[in-house]
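Intended use. Records like the one below are meant for learning the mapping from a protein sequence to its folded structure. Do not use them to infer anything beyond what is encoded.
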Amino acid sequence: TYELRSLLTSGTAAGGGSIERVPCTIRMLKVPKSSACFHDFETYERLLQAARATGPNETLIVLLGGEAGLRCGEMTALEWADVDLVTRQLCVQRSNWEGQVTTPKGGRLRRIPLTVRLATALREHRQLRGPLVLCDEQGAMLKHRAVLAGVRRAARRGKVQDSGVHVLRHTFCSHLSMRGAPVRAIQELAGHADLSTTQRYMHLSPAAIEGSIRLLDQASAGPSRGDIVETANGRLVSV
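Structure written out for the chain above:
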């Protein structure tokens, strides 16, 4: 590996001397990229219901991650000035990294249309403690561990596993994929610099796979009542 090659050529190996030429070929093995963990539709709805019963911050955290795809740092740095409830859109233009507010990962802002549920939650929980959407009682920015604790509280209440904040972002990308969103659209919404990162989320839940196979059953069974079919002369008729 890289560490072994470095030891052999840098002089830090036992004996203190450096080796001019590595006496063997060290081949780098390709490690397959793991798929990202995500909540299926039913589990996500259960988590959201539990978050609503837990508190407004928990509700917004679940929705900002699961229905807007925000990273934890992007959530905590989000300001009310970034939210347009008239056009139902939010702008991700900053991120919090260990208390330092910087640009989002990738270095560019992105605009995300709001789902009805997220727009409603933002409207209902609008507070005047400060400019931040997520904040404590004094209006101060939430720390990463506070956001994680909020998700875990909701997950415990809803009996949901895999309660990490980033699982919500994975869920956002995966649900878009399962609903048929184009991969380039998912890439843009998630703010991925590399399309290969987005493709990690192009997996399906077991229920979606089962439903896909049932499409073949429908095709082999012939048209159902109400289906549109093409006749021999090219006309489209309803059966």
